[in-house]
Amino acid sequence: MKAISPRFAFFLMRFTRWVKKIPLARRLASTIIIEALARTTKPRPRAFSMACDYTTWQGLTNRRYTGRHLPPAIGPDAPARPPEEQVLELFRRVGEGKRDPDTSVLFVFFAQWFTDSFLRTDWFDKRKNTSNHEIDFCQIYGLSEEKAKLLRKGKNAESKGGLLASQIINDEEFPPFLFTRLDDGSITVAPEFVGLHSPEILNVVFGDVSDEAKLNVFAAGLEHGNNVIGNVLYNTLFLREHNRIAKLLAAEYPAWDDDRLFETARNIMVVLLLKLVIEEYIVHIGPYDAALDVVPFIAEGKSWNKSNWISIEFALLYRWHQLVPNQIIANGKTLEPREFRNNNKLVISEGVGPLIDLLSRAPSGKVALHNTPTFLVDSIEKRTIALMRSANLASYNDYREAFSLPRKSSFEELTSDKAVQAELKSLYGTIDKLEWYVGIFAEDYPDFLMMGPLLSIMVSYDAFTQAFTNPLLARNVYNEETFSKVGMKVFEETKSLSDIVARNAGENIRANFSLPKD
């Protein structure tokens, strides 16, 4: 079937604002929008991956090699490759930078926390990944069943009641601590969590973290679960929600053993996450704050219903470093970058609810060139550009064409910023030589979007085709037998992230990806 124009999907998103209170109409509109955006480019399996420059059996079957949408651009038709240092300067923030008028820092931290669970570049071979390629809540359950068992038991010999291990601090529930101090004063991984993460990776992640800060690090499913306060807040919030649901199940089904309680609670939690991602997170990214629904069974029989496989483009396009502000400012408080990194002490002392409220009121940066904070440019952005170059990606215009958008004919058509036009002409000469990773952040976009059209469409395509293929949304799985009556009621009662926050961090707390309108 021929790809449907993304503009048609955007038009329908505007229409959903008028029918959001009519469930059947909203569900129908959601189905059409999802189907339209899921067909903007060729479906998986992709002919190419990072395994080789041409199609190979390993490249078609070994998901440890990251996939790719387009073949590598090699030879005279490849995009221009100006020096990496000059490209890096296109991203460096000027002064205080640009702010997004509608996006809170809570959204920024959610994006990082969410994508870190499946965009997992291999530490030692950048062609590969360590991803499960699923939305599976590995942030709190770990990347394998062995790791999940460690997170369930904690210090107990046996887990009970389907619960994740936790502790109470200042009358609040938190994950257990990952590290402990030995009698000789040295800091090491607590015995109950040996094997949760490899020592080599822990040495890298916590290499510059003080002993005092290490003693406040929580056990989490992923190595980076403590590197920013946002990860800690979300991990803690959803650990509480899992344990809350497990207790509801235990009360309703006293004959169920620990494993069934845990597995059913986990199933419920994964679908809750899918609801938040589609109905709140993607809605915030998309145009007009459209009303979208998680539509069970929608992937049944569709050409895009294939095994999930993260692509190198998806791993790169999610580097929204521009959204990070120089400072987090809200509620009369200011947090410097050093205060929202490796600082669990802040989360423990301030409390989960108050910090979520603060982040919901703090403005983020804006997706654009010349808007990445300097403290990220010379580290993370530099590594990102190096990864982009090593992948030999096709040009910006080639990706527009691949995702059903018309090619741009000039830098003037790409952006109205004359200074950026001049910079890009100097570096690339013609727009057909413009590198994709630069182009997606250079393109102008209307007020009803929070990023450029190509970036919006690529995010939507990958999100929809890899979220709706989740096995828990399949026709023979999405039912009361899988989730129980308790689980189905939880789905009905959960309309937003704010509902989960109210249940687990206190009432009257703002938990919103948009900034307050007043």
Description:
By secondary structure, the protein is mainly alpha-helical. The protein contains 22 helices and 10 strands. It has helices spanning 6-19, 23-38, 57-61, 84-89, 105-115, 138-141, 145-153, 199-205, 211-214, 229-252, 258-285, 312-317, 344-350, 352-361, 374-390, 396-402, 411-414, 418-428, 436-442, 453-467, 480-493, 497-505, and strands at 48-49, 67-68, 99-104, 167-169, 172-174, 179-181, 187-189, 328-330, 333-335, 363-365. A hairpin with a 2-residue loop joins strand 8 and strand 9 (333-335). The chain is globular and about 65 Å long. The protein starts with 5 loop residues before the first helix and ends in a 13-residue tail after the last helix. 45% of the residues are buried.
Could you list some keywords that capture this structure?
10 strands, two-stranded antiparallel ribbon, globular
